[in-house]
Amino acid sequence: KQEVTQIPAALSVPEGENLVLNCSFTDSAIYNLQWFRQDPGKGLTSLLLIQSSQREQTSGRLNASLDKSSGRSTLYIAASQPGDSATYLCAVKVGTDKLIFGTGTRLQVFP
Amino acid sequence: DTGVSQNPRHKITKRGQNVTFRCDPISEHNRLYWYRQTLGQGPEFLTYFQNEAQLEKSRLLSDRFSAERPKGSFSTLEIQRTEQGDSAMYLCASSLEGHLEAFFGQGTRLTVV
């Protein structure tokens, strides 16, 4: 059974810091991995998608990497801003075409 | 197209009542998914459709839950005889066929009192 774990569960940093969020999964048989952002009480916003054959994807200040063989992904946020404060979720797509989510990392960036 | 749309955004209901939620996916997307998210947890898969066919249902989806996508466009999720444990955010997502990006709606927050 696929399980997704995110570490840390919560993170509080001053503005301007570079930070790394971690995601691990137990079964390497995935089709892709997707990082989402969720603001309190809201839906999910897709940030980055990495196909299983890819190693990384970049969008602006965000960079996500994937090491399928070791079951790990990282989301790197450069020069963090207070507007980055949210919960970040990673999810893997498995063979039955559903996403399996981690429990998220709650990020707070203070001025 | 403005993305995945869900209605209502919030629903408060008394225990035992039936509720129905609607999801309108991105127009060209033929895959539609329902997830449930409780406080502090990641979303959990409930069911998904390819066009009008319901292809998979989670064991989380008890007999009180039913989902439809009658014409392969919008979908409804109905919960009968609601219980307090049904209180959660219900999220809908859509994607094109294949292992492509899933786009989520804003969710429907259900509170059962």
Q: What does this entry look like structurally?
A:
The complex is a heterodimer of chains A (111) and B (113). By secondary structure, chain A is mostly beta strands. Chain A is built from no helices and 11 strands. In chain A, the strands form 2 sheets. In chain A, strands 2, 4, 5, 9, 10 and 11 form a 6-stranded mixed β-sheet that branches. Chain A has a 5-stranded antiparallel β-sheet with strand order 1-3-8-7-6, with no helix packed on it. The termini of chain A are far apart. The mean pLDDT of chain A is 94. Chain B has 113 residues and is mainly beta. Helix content of chain B is 0%, strand content 50%. Chain B contains no helices and 11 strands. In chain B, the strands form 2 sheets. In chain B, strands 2, 4, 5, 6, 9, 10 and 11 form a 7-stranded mixed β-sheet that branches. A 4-stranded antiparallel β-sheet of chain B has the order 1-3-8-7, with no helix packed on it. Chain B is globular. Chains A and B meet through strand 4, strand 5, strand 9 and strand 10 of A and strand 4, strand 5, strand 9 and strand 10 of B.
